[in-house]
Amino acid sequence: MAKSDRPCDTVYDFLISEAYVPELQANTECLIFDIDKQASTEDYTHSELFDLLPIDEQEKLQQFCGQRNPVFYGNELASSPIIHFHSGEKDHRLLNHFYTFIYFPDTKIEHTYKRFVRDFLHYTDTIWCAAGRVIQLLEDESKSFSSMHGKYISICVLPSSV
User: Fold this and answer.
1) pLDDT tens for each residue of 34-60
2) In terms of C-beta density within 10 A (0-12 exposed, 13-18 middle, 19 or more buried), how is residue 34 classed?
3) Most buried by CB count within 10 Å: which residue of 31, 62, 99, 115?
């Protein structure tokens, strides 16, 4: 990004200095939006809050989080006017869907937020058009390989250590 003719350093410097930057990683934490526990986050650690939950809720949360540590929404995260998820660096990647990282115990609230994301958070037409041009170039190039018949196919191969 630094080599770009429009670097983002000014924006990032502002966000880092003025916003609350939580130390969250999608692969090691899961964020819990529990309105009943939100005010309690100042008085308890996250593990103590987990222990205060009813057994059935603990089981649901454990199933959702797996090996990740539950982090309850509250304190600075709830009171900060600007929150910046520091996702551009290797140690702070949030490369997954929000619904695999954020847990809502109240299903009515969960459905509201999922509908909001589905209905209002989209890539701009500029990004879709650029992606379409890249795919078209890949398809045009693949026509030279007779076995592919001009079709672009994407595949992800995970390392054996994963």
Assistant:
1) 877 776 767 788 888 888 888 998 999
2) buried
3) 31
Residue pair 25/96 in contact (Cβ under 8 Å)? The answer is no
Distances (CA, A) of 43 to 9, 48, 49, 159: 37, 9, 9, 42
Q: What is the DSSP letter of 140?
A: H
pTM over 0.85: no
E runs forming strands in the chain: 29-32, 69-72, 102-103
Other CB atoms within 10 A of residue 25 CB: 16
Residue-wise pLDDT for 120-142, tens only, equals 887 888 988 998 898 888 878 77
Q: Count CB neighbours of 102 within 10 A.
A: 17
Delimit the domains of the chain by residue range. Answer: 9-120, 122-162
Residue 78: is its pLDDT beyond 90? no
Distance CA 72, CA 94 (A): 17
